Amino acid sequence: MENLDGKTVSPAASGLTSGQAETALQHFGPNRLPVVPPPTFLKVLALQFLSPLIYILMASAALSMVLSEITDALFIAVVLIINGIVGAIQEYSAGKSADALRALEQPHATVVRDGMRRMIDAADLVPGDLVMLESGERVPADIKLREVEGLQSDEAAHTGESRPVAKTDGDMVFAGTIVTRGRARGIVTATGSQTELGRIAGAIQERSIAKPPLMIRMEGFTRLIAIAVGVAIIFLVAVGLLRQMALGDLLTMSIGLAVSAIPEGLPIAITVALAISMRRMAGANVIVRNLPAVEALGSCTMIATDKTGTLTLNELTVTDIRLPDGTHWLLDTGTDPVAGGIRSHDGVHEVPNAAVTRLLTAASLPNEAQLTGGNDTFEPMGDTVDIALLAAAHKGGVTRTQLLEDFPLHSRIPYEPEQKYAASFHHAQDALRVFVKGAPDMLMAMCETMQVADRPVSLDQHLLRAQIDAMASEGLRVLAFAEGRIARSGDLAYDGRVLIDLNFLGLAGMQDPIRPEVPAALAACRSAGIDVAVITGDDPKTAAVIARQAGLMFGDGDVASGEHVAEASAAGDTVLDELTRHVRVFARVKPEQKLSIVRSLARNGHYVAVTGDGVNDSPALKHAHVGVAMGCKGTDVAKESADIILTDDNFASIVAGIREGRVAYNNIRKVIFMLVSTGAAEVLLFVLAMIAGTPMPMTAVQLLWLNLVTNGVQDVALVTEPAEGDELLQPVRRPGEPIFDRLMLRRIVTATVMMGGGGFALFYWLSSQGVSAFAVSNLLLLLFVLFENFQCLNSRSERRSVFRQRLSSNPYLLFSIIGAQALHIGAMYVPGLNRLLGIAPISLYEWLLFLLAASSVLLVSEVDKWLDRRHRNAAKAGA
């Protein structure tokens, strides 16, 4: 045979020799997955300072040092350091996906070398090794099987297949999968990075091309702010030089304006907003591993979900029994054998009749599974189909233990994929009774009669096929059951040749049940404007039926198989993108195809959230805008590749996460609105002063006090705003939507003109009245503190009136406003501090007057919101 490098390896039955193995190990290397070392903490910390806003603040700190403004420089430096450390801690946990994949490797392997069976370190396996596999072992490498004895492999975590896969001579088993039944020998064809698992490891080690939506928007926002601040400072410095102002004064003013205009508190506020939503999501069984993923989930326009274990329970269950007489029986879903029961479809009979009991007997005896335990507690062991059949029999009052006492086992024919049936022979007085289960076509060929009521009649294949088709159209896996009697004969070999003239007992339909909460969750996704696509390894017909049962809406032409995806991929990205633009069920999909689908959906303009639980899902989880792994039944590699983990494997929890993500984004917008509008108002104040030729309205220290102390408390409190209640009814945010949309820009301009223009009007009037410069700056600083308090209230909602929001719903914000105001009042009376800030106490009359003046910004905002609501209501009425 040939390995992946095309080199011929021909092991004898005695396996490789030690010398051959050593030579191969030197050539191919150890059977380990590749390791990519994570970045050091210092490197991650350094990356936190690569931002236009940070550059400006660092330049401001440097200028402050040059101008001997040590206090200002230290204040700015402390803010920068705190922000950098917080960001570095958040990102340092990245790069663990390969470690999780290595945990799937088998630490030891049983091989035949030098003609002897021995156990070796799995890392020493080489292509050509003869490996022994047994039930319960994890496959240590990619192996081509030979001498197979009933081997089945659980490949759900690798291919998405929902049940164990039977293997025969010549089949492949892959590294990381588990042998659930039987035994075999096999030849290693690939090790380490050359295995299917190794290729997946290579895919998730690549740097993800997807950036979280919040980071994309914030990058654009920071560039815009940096440009605006730079232009404003250049303008002011140019005007100042024309007015022959001292260069030192101009630089000091520039530093003050940079600190005023740049929302340096925004990174911390964003971190707090995401951390709060992270805690809220944890309460809804959603664990966030990467802070920006909180908002990314709220921004997603498409959820690409796995089927097995995500939309379904990953528990194969018998749901239907149909008898040849036309009667139809239903079983309560679930593999718990002590829960629920069996009832007739028409509701007439609540207890199984003799015909149902006869079928359940045939389902229980040719069965190798076990339901161990007692006292209403059972532990299933064995093949999932056999477990489901035993559970169904138990619900119908039939137990295999009692059956084996009544019909002692004589011999059995185990299930094999090529024969498509299993049978067992049992002692019964002067004959042997045989019970058979398997594919309906196989059993119909064995039967001459079928059971109708209490007697057998001639087999009606047309009737039975109609029943089979009806069950298949419901997405059920259909099994048939039969029984017969065989005369004893000492010379007769009890094999498949004696399975003739049997009596057909009926059909059982099996399915992996839909999670009960999934339909409501999918409906909520539709309300939120989010599309859902199912990507699974199951066959197209079953996948389509399950998806419809789950509540997914799609047409018959919106289902595609892995073959369709492969053909479209071969034709180019344009063809694939056209396919993914409308298809909503992808079936028989390979791991690399799932990743291609996710990337195509992103090219089609979607922010994609991918859910999954298996190794096969990990590349897509890694490269999606946000990966969501199942926490209960998910593999470690899926969890480590994802940004978010659902601890309850509940698809509905994603909806709760989406809601919290939208709340987080809305709160971040509120903070941006408040910080930008107040900063822009301060810049406008200085621009108007420069144009009018007046002295500077405030000192750099006053600006620092205004922005880094009083304002710094309120913005963090603002991100603790609770949900407004309509987040899932709001239109979905499209990928190209900027933070500064039309609504925010209008509100910012309005507030900037009110505060900046109103502040300059006061400053100019007081100055013209001969009021001292000290008194004017003192009153102006107070006015801006009050402006920011009212603007903080305006920022609580973009559309709802402040008078319809209870202050008690966010006590942190209330306390921050009171605290900021108290802090400023206290500073007026503290000796030394009031001298440094250039402020002093004022009269009660002045307090009331300035309070009334500052409330104007609240009044104007309320009028704007009222007009906006009126316009939107009129638009809805016209539609």
Task: Spell out the key features of this protein.
single chain, 879 residues, alpha+beta, Calcium-transporting ATPase, cytoplasmic transduction domain A, Calcium-transporting ATPase, transmembrane domain, 10-stranded mixed sheet, 8-stranded mixed sheet, 31 helices, 49% helix, 18% strand
Quick recap:
With 879 residues, this protein is of the alpha+beta class. The protein has 31 helices and 27 strands.
CATH topology of the largest domain: Calcium-transporting ATPase, transmembrane domain
**Secondary-structure content class:** alpha+beta
Distance between the termini: 70 Å
Mean pLDDT: 80
- How many domain modules? 5
Ranges where pLDDT stays below 50 over 5 or more residues in a row are: 1-12, 93-106
Based on DSSP secondary structure assignment, what is the total number of beta strands? 27
Tally of contiguous helical segments: 31
The percent range for helix content is: 40-55%
Under the CATH scheme, which class of the largest domain? Mainly Alpha
Largest sheet: 10 strands, mixed
Gyration radius over CA:
36 Å
In terms of quaternary structure, the protein is single chain
Principal-axes geometry comes out as elongated
Name of the CATH architecture of the largest domain: Up-down Bundle
Look at the structure and name the CATH superfamily of the largest domain: Calcium-transporting ATPase, transmembrane domain
- Strand content range: 15-25%
